[in-house]
C-alpha cells in the first residue's frame, strides 16, 4: 500500500477515533447518534476505498450496505426512538470530563505502548494506525463502562462493533460476501431487538439510567 | 459362539441399551397401561443387553485378544475410543452379569410403582445408567471417559430420586449429586494433570509415556486427585456420606447395581491409573491406600452395626467392603514399590476377587432386602421379626448372602477376604518399620471387620427373620400371606446364591483366572498391542502355593463340614423334636419381649463409643407434674453424632459460605461495573498474551 493511501486510511481512522472520543464528551443522545453516523461514515468509506483500489466489487457492495444501514437508516431509526423516549434525551458519565479525558489518554498511551509491539510485525509500515485502531476499540469499551444511560451504552456497543471491523479491515481479514452481508444483517437485527428492549425498560421503569436500575435490584 | 468375539457385538450392546432407553419412553407414552409395558420393555431390554455384554466379555477371554475401536465425534478434543482388554472385560462381565439379574428382578420389583410414577422415565435413566457404566469401563480417551462418567452419575441421580414422594429421597439425591460432582472436579483435575504429563488425552499414549514429565509434587497432586475423585464414588471414608443416603433411596435392584457394580467402576479406574497408565507409583501411595482401606473397612462395619435401617446397613457394608478391596490394592502398590512382582499380582488378585464377590453377595442382599421392604412397607428393622414364616425363600437367600458377606467358609466372601489377609501377612515381613506397622494395623482392622460383620449380620438376619412378628408396627402391608416361588423374583437370587457358593468352592480356579488377567496387565504387552496372554500366566498361581494352599484348604473344609455334620447327625439321631411354647415367667408372650436391633448392638456400640459417638435423648412426662411419682410417657431417642458432617463437611461448607459472602460484594447489580470487570480482564489478558 502506498504512503498516500496509508495517509488517507489513517485520516479516516482519526475521524472514527475522534468520533469515539467525542461520544464521551457529549451529553445529548442525538449528538451521540450524529457522532455514530460520522464514525460509520468513516468506516464505510474505508471499506469503499479498499474495494475501489483493490478492484474488489464485493467489498464495495459491503461498503454500500454499511453506508445505507449505519449512516442513513440507523440515525433515522434512533431518532424515532429518542422521539418516543423524550424523557431520556441525555445521559451523563460516571467520571467527570477531566477524569474521562485522563482515562482516554491513558488508554491511548496503553494502545501505543510496547505491549502491542508484537502486532507491528503484521503491518510494520503502519504501527501508528494499528495502535490507533486498538485505542479505538478500548475507548469504545470504556464508553460502555462510563455512561449511565442505556441508550448511550447501546451506541457504545455499535461503536465497538465499528472499531472491530475497522481493525479487521486494516489487517485484510476478509469473509465471503454472503457472510459479510449476513453480519451486517445481524447488526440490524441487534439494533431492532436492543431498541425494543430499550422501549420495554423505559415503559417498565420510567428511566434508562443504569444507576436508577441498580436501585431497583436492591 | 464366534459372534461374541467381534467388536460389532459390543456396538450392538451399546445400541441395545440406548434403544431400550428410548423405547421405554415411547412405550410409556404410547401404551396407556400405567407403565406396565414400559416397565417390561425397560427391564427385559436391559436384561438382554446385559446378557449379550456378559457373552461378549466371555468371548474376549476365550479369544485372548482385546478389542479396540474408535469413532470420530463432532465435539472438539473428544473421540469415541474404546479399549476392552482383560481388566475391562472382567469388569464388563461383572456389570453384564449383575445387571442381567438385577433387571430380571426389576420386572417384578417395580410393579408397585405402576400407575404411580412415570416408568418410561425410569426405564430411560436405568438403561442410560447401565450404558454409562459400560462406556466408563471401556472408554480409552480421557474426555470421552469423563462424558461416560457423568452419564453414569447423572442417570443414577435420577434413579435415586425416582420415588420422589418421600422427601428424604430428594435430599439423598441432592447430597449424592453434590458429592458426585465434587468427585468429578477432582477426576477432571487428575485427567488434565495426566494430559500435562503426556500431552494427550489418549489412554494409549498415557500407557506409553507415563508420568515422567510431572514433578514429584504434581505427581502427588495427581495421586490425591485420583484418590479423592474416585474415592468419592467408591465411598472411602470420609467421602462416603452420600452412600448410606443414596443407596437406600433408590429402588432395591438399582441399589444392587449401585452398590454391586457402580462403586466398583471407581476401583477399576484406581487400578487403571496406578497399575496400567502410570505404573511404578511410589511405595508411600500404597501405604496411604492401605490406611484408608483399613479405616474404611473398620468404620464401615461399625456404622453398619449401629444401623437399624436395613438398606442403610447394607450401604455401610459397601463402605466396609470397599475398604477391604482397597487393602488389596494398597498392598499391591507397596509390593510393586518393593519390586515384589509375584506378591503384587497376588494382592491385586485378592482385590479383584473381592470386588467380584462383593458385587455378587451385595446384589443378593439388596434384592432380598427389597422383598422385605416391599412386604413390610418399612426399612426399619425394629419393625420386622419372624419374617421367615412369610418369606421363607427370601430368608434363605438372605442367610446365604449374610454368610458370604460375613466371610463364612465355604462361601466366596471367605475366599477373597482370606486372600487379602494372606497378602497383608506377606507385607509384615517388610524391612521398614513404618510399612510393617501399617500392614499389622491393616491386619488388625480386617480381623475386627470380619468379626463385627458376622455380629452385624447375626443381628440383621435374627431381628428380621427370626423371633415373632412385631405386628403392632408392620400394619401397613399384609404380611400374613406366605411368599410363593416366583421365577422373576427368586431366579436371580438363586443364581447369585449359587455363585456365592461356586466362587467360594471354586476359588482356586477363579484365582488362577484372575492371576492371568492381572499378570497379563503387568507383564503383558502393554498398550501397543491388544493381545493379552492371560492364559500363559494362569499357572503363576502355583508360585503362591506356599502361602495360598487353596486346594488343601478347600478339601479340609469339605472334610470338616462333612465330619461335623455326620457327628451331629449321629449324636442327635435319637433326639425327638418337641414343639412347646417358650417359657416366659408366666407373663403373656409378646413380641416386645424380643431383643431389638438396638439392644443387640448396644454392647458393641458402648465398646466403640469413642468412635461411634452415640447420643441419647430421654423425655419423661408425669401424670402429676408436682410430685413426679407416676410416669405418664417415657421416651428415649438414641442416635449417633455425625462426625463427618460436623467436623469435615460442615466447616468446609461454612468456609465456602464465608468466602462466597465476601465475593458477592463484587456483584453490585450495576451493568457498568460488570463491563468494567470485563474490561480489566481484557486488559490483563492482552498484557499476558502479548508478552
Describe this structure in words.
The complex is a heterodimer of chains A (218) and B (691). Chain A is an all-alpha fold and 218 residues long. Chain A has one domain (3-217). Helices cover 78% and strands 0% of the residues of chain A. Chain A has helices at 3-25, 29-53, 57-84, 97-111, 127-146, 150-170, 177-205, 210-217. Chain A is globular and about 55 Å long. Chain A starts with a helix and ends with a helix. In chain A, 36% of the residues are buried. Chain B is mainly alpha-helical. In chain B, the strands form 2 sheets. Chain B has a two-stranded antiparallel ribbon with strand order 1-2. A two-stranded antiparallel sheet of chain B has the order 3-4. In chain B, helix 3 packs antiparallel against helix 17 (487-505), helix 8 packs antiparallel against helix 10 and helix 12 packs antiparallel against helix 16. The termini of chain B are far apart.
What does this entry show, briefly?
Chain A is mainly alpha-helical. Chain A has helices at 3-25, 29-53, 57-84, 97-111, 127-146, 150-170, 177-205, 210-217.
Structural class label of chain A:
mainly alpha
- Give the tally of β-strands of chain B: 4
- In round numbers, the mean pLDDT of chain A is 83
Whole-number total of structural domains of chain A: 1
Task: Outline the secondary-structure elements.
The complex is a heterodimer of chains A (218) and B (691).
Chain A lengths: L2 H23 L3 H25 L3 H28 L12 H15 L15 H20 L3 H21 L6 H29 L4 H8 L1
Helix pairs in contact in A: 1-2, 1-5, 1-6, 2-3, 2-6, 3-7, 4-5, 5-6, 6-7
Chain B lengths: L6 H24 L5 H28 L3 E6 L6 E6 L1 H24 L9 H20 L3 H19 L6 H32 L4 H7 L6 H19 L8 H7 L2 H26 L5 H23 L4 H29 L2 H36 L15 H14 L6 H17 L4 H33 L21 H19 L1 H17 L10 H4 L12 H22 L25 H11 L1 H4 L1 E9 L8 E10 L2 H21 L7 H20 L1
Antiparallel strand pairs in B: 1-2, 3-4
Helix pairs in contact in B: 1-2, 1-4, 2-3, 2-4, 3-4, 3-10, 3-13, 3-17, 4-5, 4-10, 5-6, 6-8, 6-9, 8-10, 9-10, 9-12, 10-12, 10-13, 11-12, 11-16, 12-13, 12-15, 12-16, 13-14, 13-15, 13-17, 13-18, 14-16, 14-17, 15-16, 15-17
Amino acid at each position: 500500500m502506498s504512503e498516500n493511501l496509508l495517509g488517507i486510511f489513517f485520516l479516516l481512522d482519526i475521524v472514527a477515533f475522534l468520533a469515539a472520543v467525542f461520544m464521551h464528551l457529549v451529553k445529548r443522545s442525538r449528538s451521540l447518534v450524529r457522532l455514530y453516523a460520522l464514525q460509520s461514515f468513516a468506516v464505510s468509506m474505508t471499506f469503499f476505498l479498499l474495494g475501489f483500489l483493490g478492484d474488489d466489487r464485493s467489498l464495495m457492495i459491503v461498503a454500500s450496505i454499511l453506508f445505507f444501514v449505519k449512516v442513513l437508516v440507523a440515525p433515522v431509526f434512533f431518532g424515532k426512538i429518542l422521539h418516543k423516549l423524550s424523557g431520556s434525551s441525555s445521559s451523563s458519565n460516571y467520571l467527570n470530563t477531566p477524569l474521562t479525558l485522563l482515562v482516554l489518554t491513558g488508554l491511548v498511551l496503553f494502545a501505543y505502548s510496547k505491549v502491542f509491539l508484537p502486532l507491528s510485525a503484521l503491518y510494520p509500515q503502519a504501527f501508528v494506525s494499528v495502535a490507533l485502531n486498538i485505542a479505538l476499540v478500548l475507548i469504545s469499551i470504556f464508553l460502555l463502562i462510563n455512561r449511565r444511560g442505556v441508550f448511550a451504552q447501546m451506541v457504545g456497543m455499535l461503536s465497538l462493533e465499528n472499531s472491530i471491523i475497522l481493525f479487521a479491515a486494516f489487517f485484510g481479514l476478509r469473509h465471503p460476501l454472503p457472510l459479510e452481508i449476513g453480519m451486517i444483517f445481524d447488526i440490524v437485527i441487534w439494533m431492532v431487538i436492543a431498541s425494543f428492549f430499550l422501549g420495554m425498560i423505559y415503559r417498565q421503569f420510567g428511566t434508562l439510567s443504569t444507576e436508577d436500575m441498580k436501585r431497583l435490584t436492591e | 459362539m464366534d459372534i461374541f468375539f467381534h467388536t460389532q457385538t459390543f456396538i450392538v450392546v451399546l445400541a441395545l441399551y440406548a434403544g431400550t432407553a428410548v423405547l421405554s419412553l415411547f412405550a410409556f407414552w404410547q401404551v396407556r397401561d400405567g407403565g406396565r409395558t414400559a416397565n417390561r420393555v425397560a427391564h427385559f431390554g436391559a436384561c438382554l443387553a446385559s446378557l449379550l455384554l456378559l457373552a461378549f466379555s466371555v468371548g474376549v477371554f476365550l479369544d485372548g485378544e482385546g478389542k479396540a475401536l474408535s469413532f470420530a465425534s463432532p465435539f472438539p478434543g473428544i473421540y469415541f475410543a474404546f479399549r476392552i482388554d482383560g481388566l475391562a472385560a472382567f469388569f464388563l462381565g461383572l456389570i453384564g452379569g449383575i445387571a442381567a439379574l438385577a433387571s430380571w428382578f426389576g420386572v417384578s420389583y417395580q410393579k408397585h410403582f405402576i400407575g404411580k410414577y412415570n416408568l418410561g422415565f425410569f426405564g430411560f435413566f436405568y438403561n442410560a445408567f447401565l450404558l454409562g457404566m459400560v462406556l466408563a469401563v471401556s472408554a480409552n480417551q480421557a474426555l470421552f471417559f469423563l462424558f461416560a462418567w457423568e452419564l453414569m452419575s447423572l442417570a443414577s441421580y435420577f434413579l435415586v430420586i425416582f420415588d420422589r414422594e418421600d422427601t428424604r429421597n430428594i435430599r439423598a439425591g441432592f447430597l449424592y449429586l453434590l458429592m458426585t460432582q465434587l468427585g468429578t472436579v477432582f477426576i477432571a483435575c487428575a485427567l488434565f494433570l495426566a494430559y500435562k504429563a503426556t500431552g494427550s488425552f489418549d489412554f494409549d499414549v498415557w500407557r506409553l509415556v507415563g508420568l515422567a514429565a510431572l514433578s514429584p509434587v504434581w505427581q502427588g497432586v495427581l495421586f490425591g486427585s485420583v484418590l479423592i475423585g474416585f474415592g468419592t464414588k467408591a465411598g472411602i471414608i470420609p467421602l462416603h456420606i452420600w452412600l448410606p443416603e443414596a443407596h437406600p433411596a433408590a429402588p432395591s435392584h438399582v441399589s444392587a447395581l449401585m452398590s454391586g457394580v457402580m462403586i466398583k467402576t471407581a476401583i477399576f479406574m484406581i487400578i487403571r491409573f496406578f497399575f496400567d497408565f502410570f505404573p511404578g507409583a511410589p511405595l508411600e501411595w500404597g501405604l496411604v491406600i492401605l490406611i484408608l482401606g483399613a479405616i474404611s473397612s473398620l468404620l464401615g462395619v461399625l456404622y453398619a452395626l449401629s444401623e437399624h435401617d436395613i438398606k442403610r446397613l447394607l450401604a455401610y457394608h459397601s463402605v466396609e467392603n470397599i475398604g477391604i478391596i482397597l487393602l488389596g490394592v494398597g498392598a499391591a502398590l507397596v509390593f510393586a514399590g518393593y519390586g515384589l512382582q509375584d506378591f503384587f499380582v497376588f494382592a491385586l488378585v485378592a482385590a479383584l476377587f473381592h470386588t467380584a464377590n462383593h458385587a455378587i453377595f451385595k446384589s443378593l442382599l439388596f434384592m432380598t432386602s427389597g422383598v422385605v421392604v416391599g412386604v413390610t412397607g418399612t426399612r426399619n428393622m425394629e419393625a420386622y421379626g419372624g419374617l421367615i414364616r412369610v418369606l421363607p425363600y427370601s430368608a434363605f437367600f438372605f442367610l446365604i448372602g449374610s454368610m458370604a458377606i460375613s466371610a463364612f467358609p465355604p462361601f466366596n466372601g471367605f475366599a477373597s477376604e482370606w486372600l487379602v489377609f494372606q497378602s497383608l501377612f506377606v507385607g509384615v515381613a517388610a524391612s521398614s518399620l513404618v510399612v510393617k506397622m501399617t500392614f499389622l494395623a491393616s491386619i488388625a482392622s480386617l480381623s475386627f471387620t470380619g468379626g463385627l460383620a458376622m455380629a452385624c449380620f447375626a443381628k440383621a438376619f435374627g431381628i428380621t427373620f427370626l423371633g415373632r412378628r412385631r405386628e403392632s408396627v408392620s400394619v401397613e402391608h399384609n404380611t400374613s400371606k406366605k411368599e410363593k416361588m416366583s421365577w422373576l423374583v427368586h431366579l436371580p437370587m438363586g443364581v447369585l446364591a449359587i455363585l456365592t457358593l461356586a466362587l467360594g468352592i471354586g476359588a482356586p480356579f477363579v484365582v488362577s483366572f484372575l492371576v492371568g488377567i492381572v499378570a497379563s496387565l503387568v507383564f503383558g504387552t502393554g498398550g501397543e498391542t491388544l493381545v493379552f496372554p492371560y492364559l500363559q500366566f494362569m499357572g503363576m498361581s502355583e508360585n503362591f502355593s506356599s502361602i495360598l494352599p487353596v486346594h488343601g484348604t478347600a478339601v479340609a473344609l469339605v472334610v470338616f463340614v462333612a465330619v461335623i455334620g455326620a457327628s451331629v447327625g449321629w449324636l442327635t439321631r435319637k433326639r425327638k423334636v418337641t414343639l412347646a411354647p417358650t417359657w416366659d415367667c408366666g407373663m403373656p408372650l409378646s413380641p416386645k419381649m424380643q431383643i431389638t436391633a438396638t439392644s443387640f448392638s448396644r454392647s458393641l456400640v458402648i465398646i466403640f463409643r469413642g468412635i461411634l459417638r452415640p447420643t441419647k435423648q430421654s423425655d419423661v412426662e408425669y401424670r402429676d407434674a408436682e410430685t413426679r411419682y407416676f410416669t405418664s410417657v417415657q421416651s428415649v431417642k438414641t442416635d449417633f453424632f455425625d462426625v463427618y458432617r460436623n467436623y469435615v463437611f460442615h466447616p468446609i461448607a461454612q468456609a465456602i459460605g464465608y468466602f462466597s459472602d465476601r465475593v458477592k460484594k463484587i456483584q453490585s447489580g450495576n451493568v457498568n461495573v460488570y463491563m468494567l470487570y470485563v474490561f480489566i480482564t481484557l486488559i490483563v489478558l492482552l498484557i499476558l498474551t502479548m508478552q
